[in-house]
Amino acid sequence: MKKSLLLVLSVLLFACQENKAQQEQKEKAKENVEKAGQNLKSAAQNTGDYLAMQKDSVKAALQEQLDKVDKKMGDLKEDGAAKTADTKQKLQHWHDVLSRKIDDVQQSSGDKWEETKTGANLLLTKSNRAWDRIKQGIRETFSDQDSTKKDK
After folding, report:
1. Which positions are tagged coiled coil (predicted)?
2. Which of 33, 69, 108, 141 makes an SS bond possible with 116, Cβ 3.0 to 4.6 Å?
């Protein structure tokens, strides 16, 4: 009987130790899951911060171009010349296009960001070329007007 009792106690002791080991494993797994969740939250926050920084950078570049257009529109005088009216129309077009793209950048979500950024960069390249052509047209318009005034 002592042997049976000793055997039963040994089995119970072994079973208790196994439960403790299983419990420790469960607690360790729970800690690992919690750490992984915290890491995931941190990565999501970092991704959101990075996206916000990129959006701000692209938006600033677009806004700079828009400010140039707005300033030149304000500088043009109401002289009724056909070239001046054409220039104003071109400036208004670029003002509208740049304003819409700034809104697109602001509203862009993470999954569409690369597409939006590519579109914004292409627009900046196009608008810079157009801006150079518009400035040249303005120079020509005003140099033509100055020479006409001198002739009179």
Report:
1. 12-79
2. 108
